[in-house]
Amino acid sequence: LEQTRDDLQKTVSGLSEDQFNFKPEQEKWSVKECLQHIAITEDGLWKWCDGVIKAAPNPGKRTEIKSTDDQIIKMISDRSAKVKTTPEMQPDKSNYTTALDALSAFNASREKLIKYVKTTKDDLRNHVTEAPFGSVDAYQLILFISAHTNRHTQQIAEVMADPNFPKT
């Protein structure tokens, strides 16, 4: 969680408004849109995870989990497999009007999540839910959140690598 937060922060640090808003192609997201998506998804994924944690533990469902922690991280981080987000997680559904607003909201949410992870006594492994790619436990959902940030930090780097990306 800390590493993916720091990587995102380092990747976008010092960008200009033109750089935040540059789109390599009409159907691709800008850095700003990536940040808006990361911020709203961070909250949405945590709400899902928190609901799973607050539900009764269901350790009998652990046998339904087929993916290891490493497989979850790799699958979510893998940019070779394009995934269309849900309509409510689209950047245009964001309340953040600037890239820095979205980044600030992300950082605030991530700090709360990091604090939770460092202090929780919750048994994250025995709260299992169904994800679009199979059963996962709450611990794996937290890994999903972190890997999701990594995925879109890579996407931001791809935008910035475009030959037409503004120099300043």
Order of helices and strands: HHHHHEEH
Biggest sheet statistics: 2 strands, antiparallel
- The portion of residues assigned to helices is 55-70%
Per DSSP, what share of the residues sits in E-state strands of 2 or more residues? under 5%
Task: Give the end-to-end Cα distance, rounded to a whole number of Å.
Answer: 29 Å
| Arithmetic mean of pLDDT | 97
The helix tally amounts to 6
Number of strands: 2
Please give the order of strands in the largest beta sheet.
1-2
Shape: elongated
Low-confidence stretches: none
| Structural class based on helices, strands and sheet pairing | mainly alpha
Radius of gyration: 17 Å
Short key terms for the protein model shown above:
elongated, 2 strands, 168 residues, mainly alpha, two-stranded antiparallel ribbon
What would you say this structure looks like, in words?
- The structure is a single chain.
- With 168 residues, the protein is mainly alpha-helical.
- The chain is 55% helix and 5% strand.
- The chain contains six helices and two strands, in the order H-H-H-H-H-E-E-H.
- It has a two-stranded antiparallel sheet with strand order 1-2.
- Helix 1 packs parallel to helix 6, helix 3 runs parallel beside helix 5 and helix 4 runs parallel beside helix 6.
